[in-house]
């Protein structure tokens, strides 16, 4: 995913929306990033070419969009919708509905591809109450996340870190920056609520688990 994130995604998530915890990115940059990601995926066997990549990381998968997300430790089992860019250039977020779902940002890699796949979810959904990612901050290192993909395969990830950060200090480069292995980012809102907005973001960092022998 050479060059994918630093330009397109460094600006994404910097200007957080109400409870969706997405942000701004230009359509031109996002589409260019997606093309570079697909180009990288078409080379070699899809595994990381950097010798510094973790030996415990799983082998990269081909492109296939996520359709379901399961996080057993916090009771999440949700369909996954695709998210793009809104007319104003901000990253879309899932709609505020009673049947709240997570959303995959389709200009990021699909789960299992090399690079940071980004999935967003609400912590609350207005009058409907709790959102699908309401317990995201309870995850701990070693917890499992399973993304079911459209081709029938699953990409299983292992949580490496969970961080709560002020939106004003969002670590865009760490979230969206280039990585040489398949990783996953789950993002929602958190921390104190100030009026209709949350002060912080909760970010889960996870990497693709090795295949079982």
TrEMBL record:
InterPro entries: Sortase (IPR005754), Sortase_F (IPR042001), TAT_signal (IPR006311). Keywords: Signal. The keyword Signal applies. Residues 1-25 form the signal peptide. The keyword Nuclease does not apply. It holds the Pfam family Sortase. Residues 29-61 are annotated as: Disordered. It comes from the Bacteria. Residues 46-60 have a biased composition (Low complexity). PROSITE patterns: PROKAR_LIPOPROTEIN (PS51257), TAT (PS51318). This is Class F sortase. It comes from Streptomyces osmaniensis.
């Amino acid at each position: 995913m050479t060059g994918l994130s630093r330009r397109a995604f460094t600006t994404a998530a910097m200007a957080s929306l109400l409870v969706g915890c997405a942000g701004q990115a230009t359509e031109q940059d996002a589409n260019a990033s997606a093309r570079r990601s697909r180009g990288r995926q078409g080379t070699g066997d899809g595994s990381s070419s950097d010798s510094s990549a973790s030996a415990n990381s799983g082998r990269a998968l081909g492109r296939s969009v996520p359709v379901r997300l399961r996080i057993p430790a916090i009771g999440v089992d949700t369909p996954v919708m695709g998210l793009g860019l809104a007319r104003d250039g901000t990253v879309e977020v899932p709609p505020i509905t009673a049947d709240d779902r997570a959303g995959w940002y389709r200009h990021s890699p699909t789960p299992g591809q090399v690079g940071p796949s980004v999935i967003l979810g609400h912590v609350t959904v207005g009058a409907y109450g709790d959102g699908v990612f309401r317990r995201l901050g309870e995850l701990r290192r070693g917890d499992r996340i399973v993304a079911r993909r459209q081709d029938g395969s699953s990409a299983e990830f292992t949580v490496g870190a969970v961080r709560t950060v002020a939106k004003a200090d969002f670590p865009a480069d760490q979230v969206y920056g280039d990585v040489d292995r398949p990783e996953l980012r789950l993002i929602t809102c958190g921390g104190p609520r100030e009026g209709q907005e949350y002060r912080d973001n909760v970010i889960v960092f996870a990497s693709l688990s090795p295949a079982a022998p």
